[in-house]
Amino acid sequence: MCLFRGISMHIPDGFISTPVAAAGIAMAAGSVAYAVKATNKKMGEKQIPLMGVLAAFIFAAQMLNFPVAGGTSGHLIGAALAAILLGPWAGVLIMACVLIVQSLIFQDGGLLALGANVANMGVVPCFIGYYLYRGIAPLFRKRKLGMMVGSGVAAWFTVVIASGACAVELAISGTVPLGIALPAMAGMHAIIGIGEGLITAAVLSLVLATRADLLELQKA
User: Fold this and answer.
1) 41: which residues sit within 8 A by CB, 6+ positions away?
2) Sign of the dihedral defined by the CA atoms of residues 79, 50, 41, 24, in that order
3) Residue 39 phi/psi, 5° resolution?
4) pLDDT at position 1, please?
5) Between the CA of residue 183 and those of 10, 121, 165, 180, 188, what are the distances in Å?
6) Residue 73 φ then ψ, to 5°
7) What's the whole-model pTM score?
8) How far is Cα 41 from Cα 44, in angstroms, rounded to an integer?
9) Which residues pair with 73 in a beta bridge?
10) Contact 215, 207 (CB under 8 A)
11) What is the pLDDT at residue 2?
């Protein structure tokens, strides 16, 4: 099955049923609409440029694949990174912009499946990654260590959860049984998530070393 050969989380059109696609569109549209309202209230002069820079970075980083195993590859999703730096609602907006451009210009994920892709790779991981990080990082006395561990674990978990959501949607749609989809997607993305965690921790370490003030911007 081509979806699993590429181990892609960008669901193409035709792989999920109309009800699942409609539910994804509803969730994504509602989340993006509220995200616009929430970020308009909270974003200041510092955050707006950072949102653009972060969206450009995530878009470019998603184009760079790293080898995983068995001839497969993975790339950064970036939802946890965006949410940790700017908060979950701003992260949702950033990820939605990236995924929309990828779908419209590069056909990376179907148009009808765009809502499900935004929900899987934007809405769900932004909130899970943000709150996992906020829960883990303060457990360490040393701020940098807590940030590294918290962001790495959160980023890894978001990749696995997002792949699991994708597998469930495929199973509900009748595309592939859950017993096949879930181990295939979650298993491979558990490995890909290690790269996501390392990249996320490395970027945050760089931000801490150069612009520590940006880490104070994240407010839920």
Assistant:
1) none
2) negative
3) -70, -30
4) 42
5) 17, 18, 12, 6, 8
6) -145, 165
7) 0.89
8) 8
9) 67
10) yes
11) 44
